[in-house]
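We emphasize that the prediction below concerns an isolated chain of 214 residues; any contacts that depend on oligomerization or on bound cofactors are therefore not represented. The input was used exactly as deposited, without trimming of termini.
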Amino acid sequence: MSKDNKPDTKNRDEIPAEDDLQKYLDLALELGADQTKVIEVADILLEDAVVFKCQVPRCHSYGKSAHCPPHAPLPADIRELLKQYEKAILFARRVPTEVLLKDRTDSQRRAAFQSIYEIVSKLESTAFYDGFHLATGFAAGSCKSYFCWDQETCAVLQGGDCLYPVKARPSMESVGMNVFTMMADAGWDISPIGSDTKAEEVPTATLVGIVIIK
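Result of the prediction step, given as a token string:
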């Protein structure tokens, strides 16, 4: 940060240096991520079919959050956005599968997903104060389910202000990012977790977030 307490401003065409990117990788690990990697924004895979899967079979959070489909930005919008960026920090956190199999209102389950939002928010904020003021991130799961689970409706959809404006954001899947393929491309393992999953057969689940930096 500059001496007058204002965030530094990088040249608008400046790509984050290796030292900057390493700083964000280290920070993600400090905040609880288990795996981190710098990827090219061109390697972010966007598919309309991913968003369609939010609707069929219908996700519990579909239409209930300003950051979930059909209110989230469309894959086409994100494709245009990504043309302005070069690098991204992809990270994954491993959690016991039994935690993700708990009810959506369970405090452990909420905390696991909230941790991804918190890592994304902190990385984004740190990059902002380093001068990359257009850094933006995407988390995992619906912010409505994990921050406003006790609210009948999303405040934003009712014309109000978001109750968690710094942390709340779209998930990677809600804008069409194919997380499974991106994890495979990064060389990381990930297993699908559903209601029929047996924790003893798949002991570890994966939650993923990403921050794109300009």
